[in-house]
Design brief:
251 residues; alpha/beta; Rossmann fold; 2 domains; six-stranded mixed beta sheet; four-stranded antiparallel beta sheet; 9 helices; 25% strand; globular
Length: 251
Amino acid sequence: MLKEIISVTELTKVFGGHVAVDHVSLKIDKGSFVSVIGPNGAGKTTFFNMISGQLPASSGKIFFEDQDITSLTAHKRALLGLGRSFQLTNLFPNLSALENVQLAVQARKAKGYKLLIDRRFEESLRALAMESLRMVQLEDKFTTPASVLTHGEKRKLELAIIMAMGSKVLLLDEPTAGMSVEEVPAILKVLKDIKNRGDKTIVLVEHKMDMVISLSDRIMVLHNGRLLTEGTSEEIINNPQVQKVYLGEAV
């Protein structure tokens, strides 16, 4: 079994009197592709927000590579290797695709923005940024302003930025949200390529079940804030509880 990279114990989030995530405990293996599914209101995004540091946990523990990160800020978690995408893209619209990624590489190397920068360092930034763009099939768009990219291309660019940051774990919150039907296969191929490289752990929240089933090594099902069950795609598809609370007639 692969060594676990993320482990959460009794993770809980309470908003007033509402328990959004209820004592969830789970482990995610290094290099695996794990999907988190569940009906609307199941607690998926809240769970993601606690893992990445956007929300503090009400109780419970979060470990990343055996380090307790429960009290760390989102920024510090990102520097450790936890990369998070959102349902809405967060890019610099007037900068080119390459410049957006270069800024991420520069931040990773802990150098603030400078008007005058060592030429060799600038060349290394460009090389790393171009490699990230190649990984998401955007190398031919490197001079294109982010504002001109299609929605699907913006999602690819966001992935390139996360990987350029040196992220070991990619936390992807509905990466196909808002995409046209024609754009989905392209992002699906990018995710398959990243998975096949074997050097990233991917944790996905996604409603498109055909995508979840085709990509996932394991699927974790949340329901009413609790971990209902987990297993392989086949085990989840054939689980009567999952069919009842989530998949329904789609199975």
